[in-house]
Structures are given as structure tokens and as C-alpha cells.
Specification:
By secondary structure, this protein is α/β, with parallel strands linked by helices. The chain contains 14 helices and 21 strands. It has a domain of 212 residues. The strands form 4 sheets. Strands 3-4-5-8-10-11-12-13 form an 8-stranded parallel β-barrel.
Length: 537
């Protein structure tokens, strides 16, 4: 009897092992192998994954030990084999452009009027400008003199209207406050307030200004003395007020530090007679901005270079460049910021239609826009943010000519999360039923994700409505999910009556707990209207 009982037990145990030995897997169709994607690397932020075979062998061993101490009895029937089922999901890439927050493309958004139907290039305009399908944030400049009309007086009214309008369309705003713009110098008689946007009270307080000559035109214009102590203090006072108002405001994507030079770009290239302050003064201004802005991303403009650039990176200040495509080597200048684990930001040297007429004569001219140069600029600089087009047509002509290319690059610029493998294992015993979802996610973009992200798995019904959360929420700290890297995640918990699984990416755990829809989308087929990813068997 003991021999027959042991033989029967061994037969059952072998059957358990065979049942759990399923080596099937699924992967995303045609995951990009383009030159801009780095070689795969893999790390896990969850507990080590255990196979179903390990669990079965443990159960069998325990059963055999029990059988060796006594003859079979009616109690043996209660030690039933666990019922193991496994679902392997089919995964494909999302077909179409994919806009996600805190990365991607922008167009000039000068005011809330961009969103009214009367603006033909806007998202509701008569031209049906589909470039807005790619736009993830607005950008533009504000005049210092308008925001700060008098000492200790600030007017945020119009800016707030713009921020609210963008927020209603799930967009943030990249803010540039300019002290000066030579673009508006049209003659020797141009009123100063049309191009000098430093508030008049700064000069009334004693700040000096000089007369410079606009290159190529010969026009004379007044220019602030950029290292004047009164001017510098006024610039810091404004930075403090700006931080008190907007630091940490979710409507602000990032803020350029622009107190110096033409367009605030830290140069005076077109104004003979105007000179930039010393590097020590520039670095002191960076220190001050970093001291008052504790939450919002700060950005060093184009001509912040050399030791000033190095100092900015040490302070966690990101870098932008406004000379893309037209000037050789500009994308390479941003690699230092990428290597410092900071976002990189760019704008072309001119509007798209203007650059199409460039002659490629270097030096003395500029490189024309070509599709290959555009792709190379994004990938070489590991761009997180890029101005789609800076002309007043808001990217309309660019997107009309380059829709397929632009759509594809919306998945390359910045981060881009693709689920490459997913498998659900459910084990039922007399005591309970447990489900474990194991997934692999790859960042197929060219930059890390520069904000904390929260990964959630849920059982859902046929409509995608949540029934129960599977396992715990997983936090992925900002800057840790590198471009080209793959990570494995595991969710385990009590099984649910629902058999469908949805994955979600949130910008905060509070957003998930409060029942809000996720804000970040996976690059996979199966996206629901609420931006959750429904895994398909």
C-alpha cells in the first residue's frame, strides 16, 4: 500500500510540474532598432520574479514529506493540487502620433486668443491645423515691463489667462520673460518702450543705459547696462516675485532665466556698443534664481556657455539652444546637459519656411532645413523639448509637409514607454486565489523621464472600468528610467472576478487614489479613452 501510494503521489507531483512548465512569451511587434535607441539595459525596481515551477516543486516536496510519515488517509484529499492558469498577452505598438506630458513639441502661444476659433492656425481655427495633435505644451515670451509696471507692482492677469487656457487643454507653459528685443527697432525714432522692455522705474531708480548701433541697419537704440548694480537688483527682485507667484505651479513647464542681452539670450550680437556682464555676475544671477525657485525647472538660454554652463548644470539648471539646424554643431552643445541627467531644449535658428531657402554656405550663411538634419538634431541632443516651428503659422506648414516624420518622432523625443512583455499567472488553492502580473517596459525614447511616475495595474471590466487594483503602486523616481533601458515589474495580489488587466501611468499617486484618469500613455495598441492600456490576450 505504501509503495502504491508513493507511486501515485509521484505521478501527481510530476503532473504538477508539467502543468506549470509553460515557456511561452510575447513581445511588441517591431520594437524600434533605429540608431538613436541605445542598446538595451535592464534593471528591476520590484521584487525578484518567481516562476510557477518553483512553487509547484515546493508544494510537491511538502506533500511527499507528509506521505513518508503515515499512510494515506482521507485528510490527504484536502492537500489538492493548486490550479494554475497563465495568460500571455499580445502586444503591438500604437499606430499614430503619441503626445505625452513634460516632453515633446511646442508652438508659439502668445495668449489665450490662440484657442479661439477666429485664430485660423489654432486648434479650433478654420485651417484645421493638425500640428496641435503633437503639441504637448505652449511656449512664448512675456515683457518684463508689462509684468512689473512699477516698483513692487506686478500684473499677472494676462499671463494667468494664458496659463488657465493651456491647462484646460492639458498643456503647461514654457515661460520666457524678456528685458529687450531688437526685432522691434525699425528706425532711429522707434520709441524705446517698443524694444526696451526693462521697466521704466528701473532707470528712474538710477540704472544706466547706453546708445548702441543695430548691426546691418545703422539704427541707434538705447540699451541697458547689463552689469549695472541697480539693474541687477531689479532683475533679482523680479525673480523673487516670479518665484513667489509661480514656483511649483503645475501650469508652468519650465522658466528660462533671461535677464541679460537681446531677447534675454545672454548675448548682444546685433548691438554694437553693448557688452555682456562678467561670468561671475552671470553665475551670481544663476545662484539667485536657484535660491528662490525650489520646484520649477529652470533653463539656461542659448548663449550661456563655458564656465557659466558648467555652473548651471551643478545647480540643476537645464539648457536650451535656439540655433538648431542652421548652425553646425549646435545639437552637440546640449549633450553635456543630457549627461548631467537634465532635460535638453531646442528651437530652430529660424522658421521652417525661412530655413528651406538657406543656401548651405558655411561660414557666412546657414544650413537649410532637411528631414535628416531634423532627426539628427533630436537624436544627437537627446532632446526632451523642441519648438515645432517658431513662425506665426504655429507649425501649420511644417506639419503639412512632414506629417509622417513628425508623427514618428513624437515617439522618439523625450521618454517613450512601451510594454514589450506581459504575462498573468493565477494560482488557485483551497485557501485563496492569487494573481501575479509580470511585465517588461522599455523606454524607446532618446531621454529619461524627468518626473516621478507611478505605475498601476488593475482588474477591469469589459468597458475598462476598474474593479480592483492588482498589487501595489510602483514609483519610478525621476531621471532613473533611462532611454534605451528596459525594466521588469511585478504585481501580485488576490485575484478578482475580472479577467481583464489595464496598466496606467500617473504623475502622482494621489491622482490615482482620487480616481483621476492617468496622464501618461503607453506606446502600445489597446489605449482606452481614459489613457489606460488594456492588455489583449
Amino acid at each position: 500500500m505504501k509503495r502504491l501510494g508513493l507511486f501515485g503521489i509521484l505521478t501527481i507531483a510530476i503532473g504538477f510540474v508539467a502543468c506549470g512548465d509553460d515557456g511561452s512569451s510575447a513581445s511588441v511587434d517591431d520594437v524600434s532598432s533605429s540608431s538613436w535607441i541605445a542598446a538595451n539595459s535592464s534593471s528591476s525596481v520590484s521584487a525578484p520574479l518567481s516562476s510557477s515551477r518553483d512553487g509547484v516543486e515546493s508544494s510537491s516536496s511538502q506533500f511527499l514529506s507528509s506521505a513518508g510519515t503515515s499512510a494515506m488517509s482521507s485528510d490527504t484529499a484536502s492537500t489538492a493540487a493548486p490550479d494554475t492558469t497563465k495568460i500571455t498577452y499580445t502586444l503591438k505598438r500604437f499606430d499614430g502620433p503619441l503626445a505625452n506630458p513634460h516632453k515633446g513639441f511646442t508652438v508659439p502661444t502668445g495668449g489665450a486668443w490662440v484657442f479661439v476659433p477666429e485664430f485660423e492656425y489654432g486648434p479650433y481655427g478654420s485651417l484645421n491645423n493638425k500640428a496641435w495633435d503633437l503639441v504637448t505644451y505652449g511656449s512664448g515670451h512675456q515683457r518684463w515691463s508689462k509684468l512689473n509696471p512699477a516698483k513692487d507692482v506686478y500684473d499677472w492677469t494676462e499671463l494667468d489667462k494664458l496659463l488657465d487656457a493651456l491647462s484646460e487643454h492639458d498643456m503647461g507653459y514654457a515661460l520666457r520673460v524678456l528685458p529687450y528685443s531688437p526685432s522691434y527697432i525699425k528706425s532711429d525714432d522707434t520709441p524705446e518702450e517698443e524694444y526696451d522692455w526693462t521697466p521704466p522705474f528701473v532707470y528712474e531708480s538710477g540704472a544706466k543705459k547706453i546708445t548702441a548701433t543695430l548691426q546691418g541697419k545703422g539704427y541707434h537704440a538705447s540699451v541697458p547696462v547689463w552689469d549695472d548694480s541697480i539693474y541687477l537688483q531689479a532683475a533679482k527682485d523680479f525673480a523673487k516675485a516670479l518665484a513667489q507667484k509661480y514656483d511649483g505651479d503645475p501650469r508652468i513647464e519650465y522658466i528660462d532665466i533671461r535677464p541679460f542681452g537681446e531677447w534675454g539670450e545672454w548675448h548682444a550680437s546685433h548691438l554694437d556698443g553693448s557688452e555682456m556682464p562678467s561670468d561671475s555676475i552671470k553665475m551670481d544671477m544663476l545662484d539667485y534664481y536657484a535660491s528662490v525657485f525650489k520646484k520649477t525647472l529652470l533653463v539656461l538660454p542659448s548663449s550661456g556657455a563655458g564656465d557659466v554652463y558648467t555652473h548651471a548644470l551643478k545647480l540643476g539648471i537645464a539648457k536650451r539652444d535656439d540655433g538648431f539646424i542652421g548652425t553646425p554643431g549646435r545639437p552637440d552643445s546640449l549633450v553635456r546637459a543630457y549627461e548631467a541627467n537634465l532635460p535638453t531644449i531646442a528651437e530652430n535658428i529660424a522658421g521652417y519656411t525661412t530655413m528651406l531657402n538657406y543656401t548651405d554656405v558655411i561660414p557666412g550663411g546657414y544650413l537649410k532645413w532637411t528631414p535628416q538634419r531634423w532627426v539628427d538634431a533630436i537624436t544627437t541632443a537627446h532632446l526632451t523639448y523642441y519648438v515645432l516651428d517658431q513662425d506665426s503659422d504655429c507649425g501649420y506648414n511644417f506639419y503639412k509637409d512632414n506629417k509622417a516624420l513628425a508623427d514618428s518622432m513624437s515617439k522618439v523625443i523625450g521618454y517613450n514607454f512601451t510594454v514589450t512583455q506581459a504575462e498573468l499567472t493565477t494560482v488557485a488553492t483551497n485557501a485563496d486565489t492569487t494573481s501575479t502580473l509580470n511585465i517588461t517596459v522599455k523606454n524607446t525614447g532618446v531621454a529619461p523621464c524627468f518626473f516621478d511616475i507611478y505605475l498601476v495595474a488593475e482588474f477591469v471590466d469589459s468597458t475598462g472600468a476598474a474593479i480592483a487594483q492588482l498589487g501595489k503602486t510602483i514609483r519610478i523616481p525621476k531621471g532613473t528610467f533611462k532611454d534605451g533601458a528596459s525594466q521588469d515589474f511585478s504585481f501580485s495580489g488576490a485575484a478578482s472576478s475580472g479577467t481583464k488587466i489595464a496598466l496606467s501611468l500617473y504623475e502622482s499617486e494621489e491622482a490615482f487614489k482620487s480616481g483621476k484618469n492617468p496622464t501618461v500613455r503607453f506606446d502600445n495598441d489597446g489605449l482606452l479613452e481614459n489613457k489606460k492600456l488594456l492588455l489583449k490576450e
